[in-house]
Specification:
Layout: E1 9-13, H1 17-31, E2 36-40, H2 43-55, E3 60-66, H3 74-84, E4 89-94, H4 99-108, E5 113-116, H5 122-125, H6 127-138, E6 148-152, H7 157-168, E7 173-177, H8 181-190, E8 199-201, E9 207-209, H9 213-219, E10 230-236, H10 240-251, E11 256-259, H11 286-299, E12 303-305, E13 310-316, E14 319-324, E15 329-337, E16 342-343, E17 359-361, H12 364-367, E18 375-379, H13 383-392, E19 398-402, H14 414-421, E20 426-429, E21 432-438, E22 445-450, E23 456-460, E24 463-466, E25 470-471, E26 518-520, H15 532-551
Parallel strand pairs: 1-2, 1-3, 3-4, 4-5, 6-7, 10-11, 10-15, 11-12, 15-26, 17-24, 18-19, 18-24, 19-20
Antiparallel strand pairs: 6-8, 8-9, 13-14, 14-15, 16-25, 21-22, 22-23
The chain binds flavin-adenine dinucleotide (FAD).
Flavin-adenine dinucleotide binds at residues 236-242, 259-262, 266-268, 270-271, 274-276, 309-310, 338-341, 362, 383-384, 387, 473, 522-524, 530-533, 535.
Amino acid sequence: MTDEPIRPAIVTVDDDPGVSRAIARDLRRQYGENHRIVRAESGEAALEALRQIKLRGGQVAVLLADYRMPGMNGIEFLEHAMDIFKYAKRVLLTAYADTDAAIRAINVVDLDYYLLKPWDPPEEKLYPVIDELLAAWRRTEHKAVPETKVVGHRWSARSTQIREFLARNQVPYRWYSTDEAEGQALLAAANTGDQLVPVVITPDGEVLVQPDDHELAGKVGLATTPAQEFYDLIVIGGGPAGLGSAVYGASEGLRTVLVEKTATGGQAGQSSRIENYLGFPDGVSGAQLTTRARAQAAKFGAEVLTTCEATDLEINGSARTVKLSDGTAIAGHTVILATGVAYRQLPASGCAELQGCGVYYGSALTQAEDCRDQDVYIVGGANSAGQAGVYLSRYAKSVTLLVRAPSLAKSMSFYLIQQIGAIENIDVRTCTEVAQVHGAEYLESLTLRDMNTGTTETVSTSRLFIFIGAAPLTGWLDGVVARDEHGFVLAGPDLGGDPDGWPLDRMPYHLETNVPGVFVAGDVRSDSAKRVASAVGEGAMAVMLVHRYLEKI
Ligand SMILES: Cc1cc2nc3c(=O)[nH]c(=O)nc-3n(C[C@H](O)[C@H](O)[C@H](O)COP(=O)(O)OP(=O)(O)OC[C@H]3O[C@@H](n4cnc5c(N)ncnc54)[C@H](O)[C@@H]3O)c2cc1C
């Protein structure tokens, strides 16, 4: 992006080309160095220019409009312009005969000044006025926003998903609610109504109406299609295990591609603070760890594709082909399955209907700001629920952890139980489950059940976060890769002495599945440790075994 849209604009509109050029010339001479001077010859053309500036994240400091213009007169133009740039200072250019109209406009469009034509000499009649208006404008809220903008409704599930998608992929964005004036101004600039949100505006000013993840990824600079036809290593899943595999694979010279369904970072990417990862005595946020790992993978030349879901695995001789949800496929010599686990759904009635509208799975980070001064409930008794509780307690009025077990001792790390105990606005309710979730368009209340007595209580809340464990989504490997009774992938010694369909005269390597050249790492592996460090370690170890496999084919 150039710095053009960042320089605030002075926009002038006059239907007489001669006058229009003259005023633009005078403005450029005095203000051109620090401002963009934009000239239009009709109200419509000027409004279109304003929309483009708005969508690109630019600012308009001053608007000068001729009063007498055919079609849209200057007052009408300034009225529309206010919807897009509320803080721009407004000047009407009038002839002496139109002074009355200009005075009336002071009330209609909150006019800042009317300037009588001609304005010669500008040093006396034009520049002092503009100087004063620019100084006044600088004192208002007018920050340029060059990054991606998302306009949506806080109770729209898709708006929530898009915010989370961008956040988890480390794409900087600014959120605007449709309730805010600036949100409405952006919708006006995009020419879309409230009904079509969420609307995403890219840094180049492109408007995406209710985009899906794949379209969005492509427009905000995330790679979505492979650059090569064949790879040494295809890594499926972009959590710690997958990123670990990609870093080690690419750094050791393997042509490596990583395929991620949603966003790199996996579960770890959603953690507010990982305290037990080696080398970070003060803890590290999942987002930080992910950003660094992703940059490291890219530095070594690994391709990282997002919004690409693996849906099938085919074995054709020594080639392994991974089919993707968009109908394309990627082929390679070896595959590492690093698909982790996905959140288990809370079975309480009414819960599924309100997902994204007050009910969230694991999205404590992106929702934290909206929890300010709210009573927030968290379901779950493991570390992920505890971390979310600690994090949200900085924003919310109160945080209540709902735990089915009689204590946290068995499910949560000692250090976290201590932390929670020391935070005044966190309450832990043990032996409690969510029986029902209520709300028409968004979450309004919960019915909680005491598991000892069976008594119920209804509590008002608009925020429920759920962290109740996770399951591997490995159904797509049916008939190809062997798994245990819970769907976790079996590897090495866990396959038993005589693995089903194993074709080679050696036994599978430690992290190798029942298909030669297809390895597994991280949480998706049967009996894995479910920790960031072990996932990263297994990712690295799987690459070592990939080398051993490649030496022999
Ligand atoms: C909130 C939270 C806090 C945590 N805190 C800690 C902590 O403090 N310390 C600790 O050690 N551990 C912690 N954990 C656990 C830790 O994050 C996991 O053990 C670790 O992330 C596992 O890494 P993984 O790469 O195996 O799987 P995941 O992190 O689950 O990543 C798997 C990735 O694969 C992708 N994927 C799945 N299916 C497909 C497909 N078909 N095609 C393409 N991509 C696919 C997913 O979208 C996901 O990005 C926490 C977990 C959570 C949820």
